[in-house]
Each structure stands twice: as C-alpha cells, then as structure tokens.
Amino acid sequence: MVVVMNETATEEQIQKVIAKLVEMNFDVHRSTGVNQTLLGGIGDHRNIDTRNFELLDGVHEVLRVTTPYKLASRAFHPENTVVKIGDVVLGGETVAVMAGPCSVETQEQMEIIAAAVKKAGAQILRAGAFKPRTSPYSFQGLGEPALKILQTVAKREGMLTVSEVMEVAQLPLLLEYVDILQVGARNMQNFNLLRELGKCRKPVLLKRGLAATIEELLMAAEYLMAGGNYQVILCERGIRTFENATRNTLDISAIPVVHKLSHLPIIADPSHGTGRRDKVAPMARAAVAAGADGLIIEVHHDPDNALSDGAQSLFPTQFSALMDELRMIAQVIGRKL
Amino acid sequence: MVVVMNETATEEQIQKVIAKLVEMNFDVHRSTGVNQTLLGGIGDHRNIDTRNFELLDGVHEVLRVTTPYKLASRAFHPENTVVKIGDVVLGGETVAVMAGPCSVETQEQMEIIAAAVKKAGAQILRAGAFKPRTSPYSFQGLGEPALKILQTVAKREGMLTVSEVMEVAQLPLLLEYVDILQVGARNMQNFNLLRELGKCRKPVLLKRGLAATIEELLMAAEYLMAGGNYQVILCERGIRTFENATRNTLDISAIPVVHKLSHLPIIADPSHGTGRRDKVAPMARAAVAAGADGLIIEVHHDPDNALSDGAQSLFPTQFSALMDELRMIAQVIGRKL
Amino acid sequence: MVVVMNETATEEQIQKVIAKLVEMNFDVHRSTGVNQTLLGGIGDHRNIDTRNFELLDGVHEVLRVTTPYKLASRAFHPENTVVKIGDVVLGGETVAVMAGPCSVETQEQMEIIAAAVKKAGAQILRAGAFKPRTSPYSFQGLGEPALKILQTVAKREGMLTVSEVMEVAQLPLLLEYVDILQVGARNMQNFNLLRELGKCRKPVLLKRGLAATIEELLMAAEYLMAGGNYQVILCERGIRTFENATRNTLDISAIPVVHKLSHLPIIADPSHGTGRRDKVAPMARAAVAAGADGLIIEVHHDPDNALSDGAQSLFPTQFSALMDELRMIAQVIGRKL
Amino acid sequence: MVVVMNETATEEQIQKVIAKLVEMNFDVHRSTGVNQTLLGGIGDHRNIDTRNFELLDGVHEVLRVTTPYKLASRAFHPENTVVKIGDVVLGGETVAVMAGPCSVETQEQMEIIAAAVKKAGAQILRAGAFKPRTSPYSFQGLGEPALKILQTVAKREGMLTVSEVMEVAQLPLLLEYVDILQVGARNMQNFNLLRELGKCRKPVLLKRGLAATIEELLMAAEYLMAGGNYQVILCERGIRTFENATRNTLDISAIPVVHKLSHLPIIADPSHGTGRRDKVAPMARAAVAAGADGLIIEVHHDPDNALSDGAQSLFPTQFSALMDELRMIAQVIGRKL
C-alpha cells in the first residue's frame, strides 16, 4: 500500500499516518519528494480497506499495490492452468466448444441438437435445467428431469455436459448429473454458492457478472480456489454499457487481459453477449481470433419454438458453418479446434 | 407490441409478420405510412421475447408497449403503497430513517449505536448478521448470535429491525428475528430468493442492483408481489458507471422516476452509494430533497475499528447533526421526519 | 509515481526500471517488501505517460501519485475561488441561479421569460444563440441577432448573461455580448477552444462532458487556467450510464467530490441532466441540498412551441415555486439564494 | 411515431394526443387494445422531439419508429458504399490497413516507419499534425510542417495519407496535404466541423465518440452526407465503460451492428481502443474476424521515445507479423488484405 500525502500535509499528519501503518503491522518506507511525501506500507495484507487511510487528515490518495486475489494471479502461478476432463482440455492448445440449447425441453429436442453439434465438432453439451428469468411469468426450467435427459443424451453422443447451478440447495443434484458446474452471471458474487463450489472437485465455469470488473471476476475465482477447487474456467459473456444496439457489450479485450493477469482459461459466450442470432458468428470468430480458450454457443433446431432465448440460438447448419471458420482461425494463431 | 417494418419491406414480409402475430394470439392493427408500415399487436401478453420478431425478414425494430411488470406499476395501482410496521410508516407523509452499523460485532457495540441513532430520530435499527464480501479473506458476519443481539437491543430501544437475508436457507432465521427483510444489491435478481420472499408476509427492502435498470428493479419487485407479498420497499444504493471518484454513482433521479412509474416507496442508501463518510451527509440531504421516502445510513461509534465498512460509517454526532438538517429539508417539501 | 514490480520480478528487471526513472530525472526511492518491490519516482512531472513503465518487463502496475492538474487543485489553492461579476457572486455564501430558455427565439419571448425569472430571483439570463444539434435537420440558433436580443433584454432587467460559444471563430462575437462564456458538454475537450478561452478575461462556465470523469473536467479547467483565466465555473449536467429512464444520469455526488478536490465553484444543470420537465424540480432541490454553488435551469413561457428542448423547460410558475423551495433548502445548509 | 397511452388513460386524454398529432401533420391510426390504446403517427418527420408527447397527460411512452438518420441507413441505400481513393478500396472485398505513428515527429522518423508499414502491406499512412491532448502541458503536434513531411514521405512510398482535422480553421491546410480527413472521437459531435466537411469532396474517417451510441455515430455521418459528402468511413475506437483494465472497451460488436444498419464501411482502431501495445494484435485480429472493412494501427520504430502514445504503438516487426495473421483471417471470411 502506498499512502500519498497532500502537497500541503503537515509533519504531524504524516506522523499520524505512519503510526496507523505501524499499528497495522506494515513496514513503513518514507519518500519525501519535491511536492509530496509518499509512505510505502510493506507487508502481506491483501485484505485492507484502503478507505480507512483515505479519511485521515492530509492524505491525498491511497494506492493498493497488491492484487486482492492471489491464487488466481499469474504472478503466483506463472504457468497456464489446464483443465482436463476426460479427453477434453481447456486452457491448452485446443479451443474447446460447448454447444446446445438454452434449456432442456424434451428428450427428442436434446437428441436432435446433440447429434448436430457433436457432428460439427462440439465436445461439451450445454443446456439449462434451472433458468433464472427476469420475469416471474416466464418458463423456469424442468429441473431434475432435464438433468437426466442431458446426461443420457450426452453419454450416447460421447460428450461432456455443462449446466447452471443457481443455488446451494441444487448442488447435490448438479454434482450427480453434470461434468462442469456453471455459475451464471447473476451469481458471480453469490459468495455462499462460491464457497460451496470451492469444496467440490468438479470444474466450475464462472461467468463474468454484467457489471463486474475483470478484477472482481478474478476475486470470485479466488473464492473457489481458496476452498481448494482449482479447476476454474472463466467466461466473458458481455457487460452492461450505455450502448443498447446489442443486449450487452461482449468485451473481447477481457480475453487478452485475463491471459495477462491470470493463469486460468477463459472462454466467451457470444450468444448471451449479443442476444441476437445474426451477431453470434462474427463475435465467435472475434473471440477465437483474440485467443479465447473456448466458446459456449446456443444452438436450437427450432428456435422459433424454443422455450427460452430462441432469438440468440443458431440453427445447426449455421453452427456447423461457423465451426469450419473457427477451425481455420484457430490455426492462424497456432491453436486447434 | 409494435412491429416497425423496414422502409423497403415487401408485402410478403409484412404478411409473414402478421401471420406470426395472429399465431401468438395478438389482434393486429396495420398502419401503412408514407415511409413504413407499422403493425400493432394488441393483446395481454407481458411476457413476449420481442427478438423473435426482430429476426424476421423486413423487420426494422420491435417495440414493446406494455411494461413487463404489472403489480408494481402505478398504472395498475395509482395510489401510493404505504408500508406500516408498528408505528413506522414508509411511503406516507413521513420520511423514515434506518440507521446502525454495517455488521453486528458485539452487544455493547450495538447498545451504544442503537441508543445514539434512536436519540437522533431513527426508527429502525440496521445491522448485518451475514455479510457478502468480495474477498474470501474478509469478515463474514456473526450469523444467528448477531440476529439475537440485534433483536434484543432494538426491543430495549423501542425500534424496528432490518437485516439482510443472503439465501433461501437463511430465511427462517431472519423471519424469527427481524421486522424487515433486506435483499442486497447482488441478490436483486436471485429469483429463487425473491420467490421465497414472495411467500412471506413481512416487508422486504429490495436494493437496486449495481447494474440494474429501474425497470429491472421493478421486475424484481414484481417477483415478490406475484407471490402475494405487497409490502415492498425499494432502495437506490448507487449504480456502476465509468466514474470512480465515488465507489458507485448514487442515482438520485431514480427517486422521482420510481415515483412516476410505481406506487412503491423508495428510500436511498447514501453510505453504500458513495462509500465514504464525507460524502454521506450531502447525498442524504439530496435524497430527501428529491423526495425519498426514507434513508438507510451506516453509523458506528468507533469506525476505525469497525469489522466492515467503517470508512462509510458516520460518527453518532455527525448522524445527529444530519438528522437535524434532514428534518428541515423534509418540511420544505411538505413532509415530516 | 510509484512503480509496483511483480512478485516474481528479477533484480535485473528492477534495475532497468530504476535506470529509466533516473533517465527521466526522477529521484528513486526503493522499498523492498515481503512480496514485492516498490519504486517511488519522486519529482515534479505532472505529465508522464505511465504506460511507458507498465510495458517494461517485471512491472505489475504503475501508479501516478500527482494529480495531472495543478492550478485547479485544492492542494495548490486551498481557499475557494469566488467568481464575482458585478453584484453576482459564484462560489461564496450565495447560491446563484441562471435561468432562461434553451434558445433565443424572438425579442418578445425573451422579454416575457426574463421578466418572469428575474422576478422569481434568478440573477443571470441564459439563452443560446448557436445550438449544437444532433440532427442536421434541426433548428441551429439565430446567431448574432440572438446575442443582441439577449444583451438588450438582460440589461433592461438588470441581469447578467450566459450563452454558449461553440467554436473559436464565434469567440469575438460572444465576448462582445455576454458576461459568462459557456462551454458545452460536447466541447469540454475541444482543446483549441479552451486554449483561446484561457486567454480571455471573462468567466467561463465549463460543462462536464457526457462521458468525462471528474478528473478530466478538472484537466479541462486546467487548460483555461494555464492560459491565465482563473474565473472558471464548473457545471455538472449529467453523465451517460446504462440507465435510460432519464436522458442522462445527473451525478449529484460530483458536487461534494469537486468541492474536495478543487477550489472552483460547481453548479448543476437539472434541465439537461434529466431531460424532462417533471424531473427538474426534485433534482434542482437535490443539487442545492448537496451543496451546489448555483443552478442553470431552462424556463419557457410556451414550451410546447419552443424551437428546442421545450420538454425540459419549466413553466415560469413552476420555476417560481421551485425558487421558494430552494431558498429554504439553501438556508438549511447555511447558504442564501 | 407511436404514442402508447397509460392503461388508465381517459378518452379525453386520448383525444388531446390525437389533436396534437394532427396539428403536427401526422396521419393518425388508433389501435384500441385490451389494456391500452396505441396511437400511430404516420408521416415523414425524422426530426420530432418525442418528449413533447411524453409529457401529455395519460401518455405512458412515445416510441420513435423512424431512424433519425436517413442517408446513412441501409434501408435508404441497400448496397454497400465503396470508397475508392486511387487504388485503395474501402468497403469492398479488401480489408484496408492504415498505419503509422501517432504524431509526425521528424522526416527521418516518418521515412523509417512508412517504409516498414508499406512493406508489411499497409496502403495508407497515418500520422497526426495537430494533437488533441488532455493535458495543456503535453506535446501538441508540429502543425503544417508535419503535413508536408507526411505528404512527401507517403508519395515516395506510393501510399495515401490520413490525418486529423481538429477544427474548421485547419481544414484548408488538411485539404491541401492529405487524402482522408480524420474526425477524432472528441469531435464526432462538433457539428460546425461536420457541416464544413460535408461541403468537401474528400473522404472522411469519422471516429465514434467515447460515449456515443452507434445511432449517434450514424447521425454524425448524416451531417456529412446531408452536405453532399458521401465518402464516409466509420471507425470504432473504443467506448467508455466501468472497466478500466483497458483504456477503453473496443466494441467489436459495433462492426456487425453497423453493417446491418448502414451501408457505410467501418474500420477499427485497436491502438486507441486498448491503449496498450500487448493488446493491439489480439484486438486487430478480432476486428477482422468480425468483418471490419479496415484497420488503423499505430506503429513506431522507437516507441520509448515517441512524443505521444508510444505505449500503444507496435514495433514494425510486430506489425509485420500481425499483417501475416490478418491476411489469413481475412481469407477465412472470404476477404483479402
């Protein structure tokens, strides 16, 4: 921590700050400059509320110099984390693709879609059993029967599964049926849920909150890792901005930023990130070109009659054509898909 | 719903949209203009995904004309909702003040603070038992013992209580000890929690999410009301913007906007809305001047040693001076405090 | 400047950073901590691109510790700047009110409105001669004839005038006719215009840009002051956020923030800040309650037929009632209006 | 325009709205629904302030159905606009690349960089002569001598030139020396400048403002086109969001959105969009993968000593390697570079 004193700070004010730093077990380094005095507080304290210093008299600003996360940081763990589940690898050379409908609706629907996305090259089948919906009057998901269908169909196709867990109480059910536990954007800071998932030993797909900074995303990952679960896959799915030509603004630059700050793999969700079918392909290509470790894409064989989010689901033929493009783009940057 | 066709849309494209509207049980009114054709879809469907029409050929834009919420809207319920709990009234002539520390720490701490805020005029004692913290290494709250202390101290002072419920499993405990159940900003769209709270018959203080629009706040209220719980108090507590001179941007204009769109009372939280003690008083005054139905303010007798959020807590003397100012401002606009 | 090294930085990397700091004439203070090394660069350099250090190997982060503005900062000039123009004082005990129509339309229109706002207590008459309009098909202002009308009418009423200058070429004209030169939000970073205004010796009303941070607003003020023009009045007029229930989000908290960081007066514009007549009064009251040094408010006697922005103009009777409320709120916080 | 009445609106209120629509020369279509009445106002009025209707009693909401721009819209002009300058084509099959330093510093600097970017495949040489700087204490550009150097060096290399015009007074100079006139992000709504550029017959590169919606960008293009200058190239260069891990958030999705709404070409600026050299290559690849019609990239042979923005400039070897990747990505989506 560095405490920057006002240019007009008195010696007495400076001494009070020093005393407080010492009281909190910091080693203090004082730098007296032409304009200002800086006080460096050296110590292993990731969890300080810097505002306590900002409010002292004579203090101009307080700068935290340690990242508030540790286990998730590349400084702590320079090598990439590679999440391996069966034959599927996330965070390595390969770009992994998760695809499927927004919600499980029927066994037949899942069979048609799974066969199509598998054939096009997807390795992981996605579909929701519990749906967080902004309207209390909307379809809320089929629950356990959906999970059974998901598991059955994926097994037949030789695919892995990913599905969202919305609260702690659903966790046992999800653990029984799926390979990757998804935390939705609205739950990125549901700390009770994160704590429980930290105790699991299954990979977690952690979606960035609509208004979460990348630092907060890494803090949420830290919750999982602090519990001992290191198999964390991050997911950029769009942030809220003033622009409303798209549902959200897919922050493609989060991909290289996360790769610099953290060792964890990061994938992109162009379906939720744009909210409209005709924008999914360009943004999927952009994500892979920017170095994403994977994608999660909504596909539906009959989106007009989908029970949720049909408007952002690709038709199977569109998905297949997209996969061909992605394969070539991955090669350009030395990866496979 | 109004479907706006492109200026170049063909008659065939228009007919396809009409067919789809009819199929979805809308009455269709067609308006053929100089430049464009408009198709009005008339019917009682609050829950349509307009994107399904946007993707049809020839469609320029689809405009939803019904608000997605109903029970929370002033059109449905023109009179103000007045929440009465004992002698305390929210949404009426009086401006109600909730005050107390961020977290319950000890019985002694609560006694000192409760006595001070009661004397200054607060009617409701606030304090957290379960704390959502962005860092897994931070103080997480005392749990049930905190609730017991909160209840005991409030009773002695003749105050009501408000405390946050973070997940469904905590609900029985909260119901036993507190008078107003608080839903935190991060849980505004925790739909399972909202659904359970909708079944309760205790008032809910619903905080606006950091990135939630006012419409989404009212949708969340709708979840509660759809379950039969009409005692909903909304709370503006700051939104995330590009400005970082303050922790969040307290959106004071949300107060008159909510008063126009909804009949529900709305209060403001200047402590979380600014994150710094020296900004709390000006923003509390601003909120009351703009017509807020109440305030929730953090107060601590020893903020330097508070276990959480000390930096945004007022000293009791500051709170007392602020209450005097608020009393006079309330009078200016014909209210009492 | 403080350069924070990575936890894994090598001694060689640290030495390279030190060499670069020395090369740029910084005194270097090194603090070696348990986890990390910090390098304090001490010197009077407000104008360093810190990214040049961020890109060096082994560097975690670079923190600027000097504000990039100096003349505008309270550290440099602890006393409030008080702008005096004739009998009108901005930044002192009094809250000054500027009022009038969006645009000058006719002499008669100006006479009616000026008489009304003067009677209600406004001291400064506002009206535009040159209008920046988002549509090329909209009314663009009357130009010089408008300025003549503004000056004539204000003189008769014993008022001062404020009007917007949109580009350097208009400056001579504005200097001839108005008392306060307004820089619009879209021109806050029109540096050529700021530079020319810095050479003038007339007060400038500098509006915060729609997407400008408070720091950038103070940097723009610095441009004016660096030229020798110290009579700068800042104006909060709403920022762009994700919320679109209001045209912009009036950032009331900018008022106490500016008062802490700078000695310059700050006023608020609730008309542009909300964009709708029915939100102007609550937000005007909020701004004064938060400590604004003044207000600028649009008033029109016939807003339905105004050539621009009628929807956000108060009727004269509304303005008069608002002024009565504001007078009482100002008193509560020890000010006059 | 569609006026949506409140569910509780009276017949009298409805009649008043109809009367106002008729008064403003709209044809009125009334749709009476189960819950609400809709009034469609049909007519060729792109320039209506819808707030004038919103404020009428009984009105719930007013929806504009005509885009506020016309010449820039794809509905008006379904074919892509292809800007041809000499051998260079923007908006066609080819992806055009503009490259060069942030500012012209010396003839030697320009010769080195121009030779390098030309060899790597860039067709257009970029460099600033007038620099808008947020600090009054920063390098402000060399002015006319810079333009002479730019022109001389570009001619020798057989390249076109692009440089920024900051105000109307600079226009004659820029017209003399450069092939493409750049409007910077801060000037996107400098309507006087746009109006003058509309009278020119040289291509304009129009950068999206930091806080401008895509609709506003197209409105700014409309200003140019309304004056008769149809050679408009749009440029996405990053928007301001709450995330500050990057200088701005490059909105890659603006590329497919513009391609749907407008016929104008759009390029991307990954240098300003990210602000850091190590993020430029991934974002440049993403932009081309998403369908950008071109790129503008900062390159400097000695960025450590660049007078401005060195931190976001690529080294020539990095640029050359990037161009090789871009060439392959362009092919994947059926384009050339």
Structural write-up:
The structure is a homotetramer of 337-residue chains. By secondary structure, chain A is of the alpha/beta class. Chain A folds into 2 domains: 62 residues, Alpha-Beta Plaits (2-Layer Sandwich); 250 residues, Aldolase class I (TIM Barrel). Helix content of chain A is 35%, strand content 18%. The first copy, chain A, has 11 helices and 14 strands. In chain A, the strands form 3 sheets. An 8-stranded parallel β-sheet of chain A has the order 13-12-11-10-9-8-7-14. In chain A, helix 3 packs parallel to helix 11 and helix 10 packs parallel to helix 11. The longest helix of chain A has 17 residues. Chain A is elongated, with a radius of gyration of 23 Å. In chain A, 60% of the residues are buried. At the A-B interface, helix 2, helix 6 and helix 7 of A face helix 2, helix 6 and helix 7 of B.
Tell me the distance between the termini of chain A. Answer: 43 Å
Strand residues, percent of chain A: 15-25%
- This entry's quaternary arrangement is homotetramer
Low-confidence stretches of chain A: none
